[in-house]
Amino acid sequence: xxxxxxxxxxxxxxxxxxxxxxxxxxxxxxxxxxxxxxxxxxxxxxxxxxxxxxxxxxxxxxxxxxxxxxxxxxxxxxxxxxxxxxxxxxxxxxxxxxxxxxxxxxxxxxxxxxxxxxxxxxxxxxxxxxxxxxxxxxxxxxxxxxxxxxxxxxxxxxxxxxxxxxxxxxxxxxxxxxxxx
Length: 181
Prior knowledge:
By secondary structure, this protein is of the alpha/beta class. The protein has 9 helices and 6 strands; from the N terminus they run αααββαβααβαβαβα.
């Protein structure tokens, strides 16, 4: 049980440990705990490794539809990041939410590629990230990120905001486009 958990990443470990606490409170047996951990493997679109192509790792975090979730993703990933996010209209409320990410963006993000309007990202992160690029589709975003000629980066798809498309659909599209490279 613990060997499979060790290969799943920090987020899934935290989820599993929280599950153990809950299970112990409910007095579940060890066999039932093992079943719970097997379900963790089924968490799709949450810091899910997709592929490594020419030294670049692709991570699907399509389930992150808030700045807090994206903060966690950026905090978790080690090394430099090209961040693919959903586009967002600039507003004072949205800008205030995104300002929480400034420290991590300054430390880790080398390029931001948006699927849609990038005005909010330019307003909040323009002084920290020199390349903030809007695109029309996830496929175009994946290509821009991959062919940006940045070495030793991880390309993270973490939307940060809702856009009316389900995270399952966006995550599946992201994975498909990565596998088409």
